[in-house]
Amino acid sequence: MQIPFDPIQRSEETERKVMRGEDRLYHKFRAAPYYGGIATADAIGCSFLCAFCWNYRRNENPGSFGRLYSPEDVAENLIKIGRRRSFSLFRITGSEPVLGESSFNHLFKVIEIIINAEPHSKFILETNGLMLGYKEGLAQRLNFPQLLVRIALKGVDPGSFEKISGAKKEFFHYPLQALKILEKLGVKAWPALLEDLFSNPQIEKLKHSLQGFGIESELELEYLERYPIVLENLKRRRLLLPNNH
Ligand code: SF4
Fold this sequence. Notes:
42% of the residues lie in helices and 20% in strands. With 245 residues, it is α/β, with parallel strands linked by helices. The longest helix is centred in the middle third of the chain and has 17 residues, at 101-117. The model has no long low-confidence stretch (mean pLDDT 95). The structure holds iron/sulfur cluster. Iron/sulfur cluster binds at residues 46, 48-50, 53, 55, 59, 95-96, 128.
């Protein structure tokens, strides 16, 4: 894959590889300790190819891993895990859930089934925000009161976004656009950033840019999972970890 790439084109190509009708490729279902305990489905396929992605190999070759699951199967697997472990949180991770219309429809059905079966639960949509910002109509449909949307920003400005995500810098603003749309709709959504890759002044600059863009929710700072493949890819993309962390 030539870097930088057009992430919309990559998203559409990836969607064709990971979706068959309503079914999507997944490689695992598990109970995860994050957020205090959450039933988790690991899907395959992303519009970006981030240097720090722990699922890098699967997202690099999305058609070569996992097996197809219908939205009903995904929801059922997650509900079973949630009931067994007394979790009231659900998510899909390791990938981008929204690659285009058909993956969005798959996700929508999964959320709908879970929320109907478990009305007191919450679904956390972990997304890079690209398609939700690019295709505004998709974000407008996310009006579930039990939905929380966490948008992982890949850089503090267009340059760092391109270096980290592999996507061309002109697409930097779409995740911000998604946040703005969701906030306007009254959906609980917030931005997140990997703290380890940036200096404190860079993080402050991003906070100002978010405010300037009209985004009110607070920036969540997360930590880098230092798997060998992550460190190797960061080195390959010439991304250094600043000394102040
Ligand atoms: S957006 Fe997330 S899933 Fe996609 S490549 Fe980046 S870290 Fe991996």
